[in-house]
Amino acid sequence: MTSVTTGTSDTGTAKPKKVLFYRHSVAVRVTHWLNVLCLSFLLMSGLQIFNAHPSLYWGQYGADALPDPSFISIGAVQDGDTIKGVTRIGSLSLNTTGVLGASTEDGELSPRAFPSWITIPSYQDLATGRRWHFFFAWFFVINGLVYLLYGLAAGHFRRDLVPSKGQLTPKHLAHEISEHARLRFPKGEEARHYNSLQKLAYVGVIFIILPLIVLTGLTMSPGFNAIFPWLLDVFGGRQSARTIHFICASLLVAFVIVHIVMVLLSGVWNNLRSMITGYYALKIEPEKDKSNGL
Amino acid sequence: MGFDLTRRRFLIGSGVAATGLLTGCDALVENATVNDVLQKAESLTLGTQRLLMPHQPLAREYTEADMSPVFKANGTSQPDGEEYARLMESNFADWKLTVNGMVQRPLELSLADLKAMASRTQITRHDCVEGWSAIGKWTGVQLGLVLEKAGLAPGARFAVFHCADEYEKTLDGSGQYYESIDLVDAWHPQTILAYSMNGKDLEVAHGAPLRLRVERQLGYKHAKYVMRIELVDSFKGLWGGKGGFWEDRGYEWYAGI
Q1: Which residues of A touch B40 (CB under 8 A)?
Q2: pLDDT tens, position by position, for chain B (257 residues)?
Q3: Which residue range or ranges hold the Cytochrome b561 bacterial/Ni-hydrogenase domain (chain A) (predicted)?
Q4: Which of A175, A263, A293, B190 is the most exposed place for a label (fewest CB within 10 A)?
């Protein structure tokens, strides 16, 4: 596959060779960065919308803590002269003052579910939050459809994302998990392809979480409910869909955090260059690597 | 060590970026051009939903077992003013619904007149723009029947609902609640003028004596305390000119999402 010639056994003169290879097509790069833009604004405007009614329910209806039991709620309670932020998950109540339930807005501790630094706009304004959310939701869906069509037509999914049989064996997965845990990432020829944990994470986000977040979003729309009533049956009601929408958003945030940490740890400039110019650098070790069983 | 430095630099960098972004975001939010562009999405939503509902599908109807134990009252729960107080005292016996504007025969209908017309009962879900939902049972007369009685004048495009409640106290009266829908929703079978809720006369907190139900849109479209229905070709001349109390305050006129 490579043109690296067999070196002598004198390793002193054999340096690793840097090879640039074309990793990301234009379509992948453009849709990736548009997705960054869309998801950032969707998250911030989504949290603004959530703040208008910071409780989550399961089922068809759900309006207030009593008598409709919510299983997650973020609120503020009076605590002497001041207020206290309380996040409740089931029967578990946590004091989250400063971040959730009560946080500083204009220098004053105010009751608000998510803090002003993560919502758009920073102040409470549901109408504006909705305007931003729906604009970027359309943008995100159109961008996503372009990506899906490209991925199918160009063989991107089959070639780059679907794990090979060998990648899914328990032994191989265990090996990769232990390598990742020690922050040892594939090098050389092995880095030409995504590893199986990467593939599974990308496939999970692209084919499960992102479609789920779009469908649960549509399930919250009374208009789309009339058009696609089966959405209500699939998700068990509008309030369940709202909860799943929130869980999917949380999973996406978790994914993005891990994704960014991995980018930083596995060669930030190389990774960034490949997502901007398309080219990723491989360090090809001379022949001696072969004897290591790689 | 290398990792720590990278991480620390990353955290500092993102902190600076976040502060800059935040101020930047609020500036963007308040920029008129940005708002005009973002608002285009509303037409896209309306156009898409209308394209996908040529057969005018019904909103889901539920069974009595699905109903919310308590239906949350939102917005005004008791309109102010002597006139409403007087109507309430007589249990709305003196109340009359006015239908005027671009109609051939302006109408004055009492509650008894409305109850004498064919009724429709539906158990539907009420979705508030805030995110909560409640399921209740509504009985009323289809708006289409009332509009047919009045007969539309050529050019009429919207039904405007003028309400008894002033939701925001203002000197110029612009806090008066009003709403509007187009003729597609006006003639939808589930668009009713409800006088009964959960088997009883509509309570004051829920909009007595009459409220609109427009089941494929969000709660703020379901005007309570309806006093007058005006047929218009445009709502430019009404209060803020956006077709509703909340619309004048930045919310979408088409609340199907």
Answers
A1: 135
A2: 334 444 445 455 555 555 566 667 888 888 999 999 999 999 999 999 999 999 999 999 999 999 999 999 999 999 998 999 999 999 999 999 999 999 999 999 999 999 999 999 999 999 999 999 999 999 999 999 999 999 999 999 999 999 999 998 888 888 999 999 999 999 999 999 999 999 999 999 999 999 999 999 999 999 999 999 999 999 999 999 999 999 999 999 999 99
A3: 23-278
A4: A293
Model ipTM over 0.85:
yes
Q: Is B9 on the interface with A (CB under 8 A)?
A: no
* Interface with chain B: mutation pick from A70, A182, A221, highest number of B CBs within 10 Å: A221
Read off the CATH number of the domain in which B188 is found: 3.90.420.10
How many CB pairs below 8 Å do chains A and B form together? Answer: 145
Q: In B, residues 135-194, which contact A (CB 8 Å cutoff)?
A: 135
- pTM attached to this predicted model: 0.90
Task: Please tell me if residue B235 touches chain A, with a CB cutoff of 8 Å.
Answer: no
In a domain, B36, yes or no: no
Asked if A223 lies within 8 A of B256 by C-beta distance, the reply is yes
- Would you call A117 and B22 a contact, using CB atoms and an 8 Å cutoff? yes
- Kindly identify which residue of chain B lies nearest to residue A268, measuring between CA atoms: B6
Nearest to B25 among A121, A232, A264 (CB): A121
Residue to test with chain A: of B40, B62, B127, most A Cβ within 10 A: B127
Show the 3-state SS of chain A.
CCCCCCCCCCHHHCCCEEEEEECCCHHHHHHHHHHHHHHHHHHHHHHHHHHHCCEECCCCCECCCCCCCCCEEEEEEEECCEEEEEEEECCEEEECCCCCEEEEECCEEEEECCCHHHCCCCCCCHHHHHHHHHHHHHHHHHHHHHHHHHHHHCCHHHHHHCCCHHHHCHHHHHHHHHHHHCCCCCCHHHHHCCCHHHHHHHHHHHHHHHHHHHHHHHHCCHHHHHHCCHHHHHHCCHHHHHHHHHHHHHHHHHHHHHHHHHHHHCCHHHHHHHHHCCEEEEEECCHHHHHHCC
- Please check whether residues B76 and B6 belong to one and the same domain: no
pLDDT in tens, A69-78: 888 999 999 9
- Yes or no: domain A13-54+118-285 corresponds to CATH 2.60.40.10: no
